[in-house]
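Collaborator request log, item 7. Partner lab (contact: R.S.) asked for a structural prediction of CCA tRNA nucleotidyltransferase to inform their binding assays.
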Amino acid sequence: MAKASTVGCLAVTDPDRRTRLLAGAAVSLQAFSDVLVPLGTLFADAGHELHLVGGSVRDAVLGRLAGDLDFTTDARPEQVTALLSGWADAQWDTGIEFGTVSARKGDATIEITTYRADSYDRVSRNPQVVFGDSLNGDLVRRDFTINAMAVRVGRDGPAEFVDPLDGLTALLAGVIDTPATPQESFHDDPLRMLRAVRFVSQLGFRVAPRVFDAIADMSQQIERITAERVRAELDKMILGEHPLEAVDAMVDTGLAERVLPEVPGMKLTIDEHHQHKDVYQHSLTVLKQAMDLEEGDPDLVLRWAALLHDIGKPATRRHEPGGGVSFHHHEVVGAKMVRRRMRALKYPKAIVDDVSQLVFLHLRFHGYGDGAWTDSAVRRYVTDAGPLLDRLHKLVRADCTTRNKRRARRLQENYDHLEARIADLQAAEDLERVRPDLDGNAIMQLLGLPPGPKVGEAWRYLKELRLDRGPLSHEEAEEALREWWQQQG
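Returned to partner:
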């Protein structure tokens, strides 16, 4: 039977904390009264129930409700469409086959779904849509108990907190558990296994022991899910506030072996520079330190590069005479592995290119030594990084995890020095837009060439010359090009 009370006044176990949370939820919902009150009135006047539900209630209780509001109702989709018509600023029905009508009112995005009582074929994750006739029947089919709480919305706005599955207790305990048995839930929709891991990252919660065991037993079921849906959950996971704990959960349950096997694969290798931890733990530390260097919103490309920067080490591990271990060219191998995995997960080409390029470049700084690079080497470092330079700075700094304070300080000082040199050269030479000192038209005119491959070769020669020697005068560039052309025969 549902537990119901006026929002903010639920008197059960641990009443003080529950009351505070629900009172806070009432305050959060009050901020949306200009949407909730008229919407509740629309449905009540038409004789229909309306409940705020799922993540919206969870986030309101946690004090993190944003402008996305999810509702459930006994009204059928065509009735919902009619009720919203003329009230909403805009509405669309892209999810109507699943009983969902979406709308926008002011700054709020609204999704209203008819009560569901679906069944699953347990081959795909797509349900056979069946509309239900009760709130409790709708809540029990949801993924986790923390998402199975509801608030009735009436003419006066939020009116009653409904929690038939005791989701508030799970929320208070910071536990992710399923309404039904986890085996039944995951057979219905295997993506829920990844969603559990994602909520570890987003909420800082832990997975209930029975849920953990079910994921470990059923991880192969994730192969029923499309790469695009897996990728979406992985991105939400990596962008959360607690991705390290989520990655650990994914690895410990065996789920990572199915969706991102290169990550648990790093547990097999001891890092030659960080004898106190394996490459996997080192990579988690780099991810954490990269997050600490972020400015503003979480950076998807930087976080993936931080986690994956050393995935090439297992494939390149070599035992050296004297007991040492080397990982020569692991950045080259790792960049190829990143491309292969991210393409399999259907990532956009731009993200694949950016993450793999950061992995490819992350080790280059270690050739800098104590400022021994020529200006030419600095120019090439900047040019190869291109628009990724700021992210590369963060990744390289995050990659310093040694416990040797003297060595750590030296690495940071060396990178400070490199950044200062880059700044000086950028001020003098506009390194962000390095171009040959002669353009294609000037090359064709000087060498008497028509458009074609030879012009491209000459352009690339001048580009390399520009990187080696810095800016040249027009006359110097022409002289160098003539000499190169004579050498071409």
